[in-house]
Structures
1.
Amino acid sequence: MADALPTDPSVIRSYAVDTAAFYDRFCGPESHSARIKEAIGELIDRYHLRGLDIFGIGSGASQEEFWLWKLGGNRLTIADIDEHGGIEPSLKVLPPGDLNFHVGDAERFLAGNPTAKYDCIYVSGLTPDEKRRYAILWGPTPPTLLKRIFRRWPKSVDPFHPLVMAAARHLRPGGLLIVQSYAFGINAQRNRNFLPAAARQLSENGMTLIEAHSWVPYRSINLFVGRMNGGPALDLGPALTTFHGRGEPKQPIERTWPR
Ligand SMILES: C[S@@+](CC[C@H](N)C(=O)[O-])C[C@H]1O[C@@H](n2cnc3c(N)ncnc32)[C@H](O)[C@@H]1O
């Protein structure tokens, strides 16, 4: 039988490579790593992300996930379709190590590992999740001025992609679902139904929306944190002063949930 095409996302190809070597390959000094390091450091402190099994969906170059590994001593499993084909060639030649990188569709990967459990699912700018929100809010074409004025997120529509929710079912009790949205984000101040809809969707899946933050000057850049019900009592660390870590200078943020 002929080999599957290297870009076929339905076939999972798994690699275990050196995490630091992977980061060095993709994230040079030009990629704002100090700012990202600071943002992920705060995330680790606030949500106690240390020594955990973290599943990254669509992590790409993994410039945030790297710091979860480096600063938090977390174990990383990543699934990414490698949509531009720039990652897998390096995975084939990097030295072996503890970064478990699976090239292929994340939902397909999880379906093949039905008993896998994680303490944290980390999602940042996942293409289908971001595109779906954009399509729901604006439709297939770029929004007209009228749409921008009148169109709002519908109350009954789920904010998170089914793929994200499928992954969340692999969380242990008390496990965290962290979703960062920066590509086609929703302004939750203008779209008053959005965060209640997120809380509802998570609740219907046995979870609680514990916090949301947005950048003050760019309200469509958001960080949502949900938690699988159960597990030890929630104990939040120091308030966040930053997240996302891209863009200069450091942008002010605001907690938008709970209100
Ligand atoms: C905009 S990039 C974000 C990369 C990284 N998380 C970040 O924030 O810099 C979106 C990523 O989603 C991945 N992706 C798209 N569909 C996917 C799927 N079904 N399963 C896993 N990854 C997917 C792409 O390959 C790409 O790496």
2.
Amino acid sequence: MVTVSGNALIGPELKHVKDVRIQISDEGTIIDISKEVKPSDHELPSSYLLIPGFINAHTHVGDAFLKDQTYGLSLEESVGDKGVKNRKFESSTLEEKNASIKNSLEMLVQNGYTTFLDFREEGLEGINLLKSELTNYPIRGLILGRSSREEQITSIMRKSDGFGFVDVFSINQEMMNEVEKIKEKGPEKLVAIHVAESMDMVSKSTSAFGKSEIDLICDYSSFDYVVHANYANETDLSLLKKNEVNVVCCPISNSYYGLKFPPIDSILKKEILLGLGTDNVLSCNPDPFRLMSMTLYAARSNNQNLKAKEILKAVTVNPGYISKRKIGQLEIGYSGDMLGINLDNPNIKFSKDVYTALTMRADHSDIGFQMYKGKVVKWKDLR
Ligand SMILES: [Zn+2]
């Protein structure tokens, strides 16, 4: 058992509570949160604020080795079928692929992520590669695989945490029947798909199927969430809400390709669960602080007024629910994944609102304490 005490953002509403004592079991689960005044294993100074560890709701950790090699290219030229990314995967050695994954995992941990949801390329081989690297890092990687060559969906889903479809052109009725059967036995498996990322995909879907990508995927009951939805209209969003399909937006990645800023205000207004992800490492580093601040700043230029706290939830509480795991909040029964942010650091000092400070000003250098499943990853004052 381990105990941590200090000021904290507690529960699903990230309520700011002073002087709490969090007790974590040997298995890494939070078993008690109290106002009891007792000595703790880790007593954080009063300038610190404990928050849940960040969850990156959408990544492709395999392509870090393509950093800064696709800026200025279109989405298709960069990550399309015959794009730079796929050509690089085809021509790289196992060693190079490993080094690329390692680099992404290092960045994720350094930036305060304790979980990420990855769309993993290259079938079973890709899944195994990431799984074996994950054993060396204090982070939870939820892997949504995809088929390569003749691999069956069933074997991909059995070896991973779910299935991440590339687009609506990669699904058919037969596959979705198979997915449905697997989910009946394993409801914790996650099924997701990229949709409405570019106008090009929206038009292609309409001319091929006579309906939007979102309309199409809502015909199937297996989808837990969609990724992007930056070209989703009000009808699409109402369909997602009605079918309880959550949305993960990746505004930095959309900007990288010159695509539209996602309709985050409408998503929140419809009370659709919103997660934020950084998407391909080739387009931007997996950094929750940049992601949150860019989202809030760019929203203003797009006539959207978002609340800082809602954006903080989109990288903690919400993706916890989206992942169907007990993660993403400081609450009894949840995983002991947390960060201690030093509010006295120059980045944040004088801020009158912790939610704005965390989303628009803090960066990874303000993380003084980091814990994953009750184990200390970083504790500045104990150097
Ligand atoms: Zn993606």
3.
Amino acid sequence: MDTEYETPLFFHVMEYAGNADTDVIDMVSGNPDWEPPAALRDGLHEYADSNPDQFQYPPSEGVLELREEIAERRGVATEQVVITNGAGEANYLAMARALERDRGSEIVLTEPVYPYYPGKTTMLGGTTNFVETAADGQLEPDDVRAAASDETAAIVVNSPNNPTGAVYSRETIRELVAIAEEHDAILVSDEVYDHFDLTGRFASALEFDSDHRIVTNAFSKSLAITGFRVGYAIFPPDLVENAKSRHMLVNVAGSRPSQYAVLHALRETGPNYYEQNRDRLRERVETFTDALDAAGAEYTTPQGAFYVMARFDGYPGTLENVERLIDETGVAGMPGEAFGDSRREWLRFALVSPRVEEAAERLARYFE
Ligand SMILES: Cc1ncc(COP(=O)(O)O)c(C=O)c1O
């Protein structure tokens, strides 16, 4: 049983980069390097001076005002919202809930895949079935339809996508909800990068009302607070109670100071904050892909999220090559093999570093 699930590979790369003798630019993790909204800090300061009763357990499913705020923004009932420890726990609750319905034990995933999905599937005793996406990361609903069966408990998708940067069309999302309904399965739509849609065409699965879809999200990326651990899942009314119980049994409750600060930030932060972050990302995409052009690399230009996948001739995306790149250029990326077989030749670089330009120059010089 010990070997059924493993420490995610990114952890090993971070460790290797941390122990390197050279100055390493971290393009591994998805930690925003920019400021959270000012109101987030204000909320935290304010919280520090509150009464001791505010330092005790919050309601297990989350602070009511935060659930109400999310419900109103997303057009759902407050009862459907569970505040989680980031999108990570939201995905776990959603996948566990789909599997415990006993309508099959298979989880359909896309390839390349965010590695935590297969990790969680195995941990939960499910099996994986991968649907390959196109070279640009787009998902063909008919391929999902062909892969799905009565054994399918859930279809887990992520748009904007980590690692490909693809943003799925509204039609694709509509079809995915329909496929889940056809097989009495659950579409789990992980929308953690929704504020980093660079196309303006992002579609949430919430647009298609259904008892067969769960939407997961978090403030980790949108408010630049991956360390706060505040996310949420929106369940169909019939599925929410058991998910709340699982959340309570695993966590007791979430973090009250984090939820307080997030609520304050949501109420006080206007659209400019998010727009500025997208503009910064657009600039970084341009800087980085220009350098990849100079290096003669093949790459995907992200439509959203934080990541660029690149392929350098004769330099497959193995863990060994990633370590060599750290040692010889001081740039740390993720091995493509972490995301499945289809991107073994590729490396993934996260654009959440103030040193994107320098990293791009180092790579261009190395591979030119
Ligand atoms: C696709 C995807 N889902 C979920 C997460 C985890 O989000 P959180 O930090 O909110 O748990 C990440 C983090 O990088 C991610 O890329």
